[in-house]
Design a protein that fits this description.
- The protein is built from three helices and 16 strands.
- With 282 residues, it is mostly beta strands.
- The strands form three sheets. The chain has a twelve-stranded antiparallel beta sheet, with no helix packed on it. Strands 2-3 form a two-stranded antiparallel ribbon.
- A hairpin with a 4-residue loop joins strand 12 and strand 13.
């Protein structure tokens, strides 16, 4: 990662400050596919002091029983799904672009943001996007340790009648016919908590006070999941819920953490969790 943004010379200076980060890792399995690799990268530019533009791309690829992780396969993965060089598709990719704008509003600092993403293929950018947009106040006037935000997320349903599909439903979010568990880790979603196909309205806040050694956050949401959501059919339809968490620094090296979530569906189902732990802070 670039710990500090950089600025390029010559005409590239108009791109503004450039930041970026990337990682390469390996997970235990995705269904029958053992030890697949995971690669992700994010970059951003700031051509104007109030504007930030960025992009994110991630792949789950290779693993036991799949074409090997070679430089050639890795390079082609970004261009052609590596089918031409590997003989078969061996990756599951997601990508998004984003924009963040700080409008010149007096008194109240605010950030407008939008992220537009796609799962696994290029034409899905237009036909089946996932869109997250919102307004955030990073420091509430009079209480700068508190931030608030309002956000809406929507995921388009897939197409079941498109020609040339490699699976039953074309461009289904967080699913794949090679990596059957999709974008999950230990059966928990890595992606957006909505889980694809549907909409969510979210109100969120965060309190961060270093002087009191306390961080806390809370969220309340209303969701409407479609039939192609990864939680369906058990959690299809409308639901409401929320989550809360807190971290308190007990000593310079020990921190207490607790979090809870709750969601209730209109069809009568509920889902909840509660965790607490002590964490060593090196």
């Amino acid at each position: 990662m670039l710990a500090r943004p950089i600025q390029l010379p010559w005409l590239f200076r108009y791109l503004g400050r450039i930041s970026g980060e990337t990682f390469l890792s390996r997970i235990d399995s995705s269904a029958a596919s053992r030890y697949p690799w995971v690669f992700a990268s994010h970059f951003s530019i700031s051509p104007h002091p109030r504007l930030l533009l960025g992009g994110t791309q991630a792949f789950m690829f290779s693993g036991e029983g799949q074409p090997p992780f070679t430089f050639r396969n890795f390079k082609e993965m970004f261009l052609t799904h590596a089918i031409r060089v590997a003989g078969s598709e061996f990756e599951n990719g997601i990508a998004s672009v984003e924009a963040r704008w700080r409008p010149p509003i007096p008194v109240v600092p605010a950030v407008l943001y939008v992220e537009w993403g796609t799962d696994d293929n290029h034409s899905a950018w237009i036909k089946f996007p996932g869109v997250v947009a919102g307004l955030e106040v990073p420091a509430v006037p009079g209480l700068p340790t508190l931030s608030l935000g309002l956000e809406r997320a929507s995921f388009a349903p897939p197409c079941s009648t498109c020609n040339g599909c490699a699976c039953n439903y074309y461009a289904t979010w967080y699913r794949h016919y090679v990596f059957v568990d999709g974008w999950t880790l230990d059966r928990e979603p890595i992606g957006h908590p909505l889980g694809g196909d549907g909409t969510e309205w979210l109100l969120y806040g965060r309190y961060d006070n270093a002087a009191r050694r306390l961080r806390a956050d809370g969220r309340v949401f209303a969701r409407d999941r479609g039939r192609y959501n990864i939680y369906s059919p058990a959690r299809a339809g409308r639901s409401v819920g929320g989550s809360a968490g807190a971290e308190y620094r007990l000593t310079t090296w020990l921190e207490a953490q607790a979090s809870t979530t709750f969601e209730h569906g209109s069809s009568g189902w509920t889902a909840s969790s509660l965790t607490a732990q002590l964490r060593w802070v090196p």
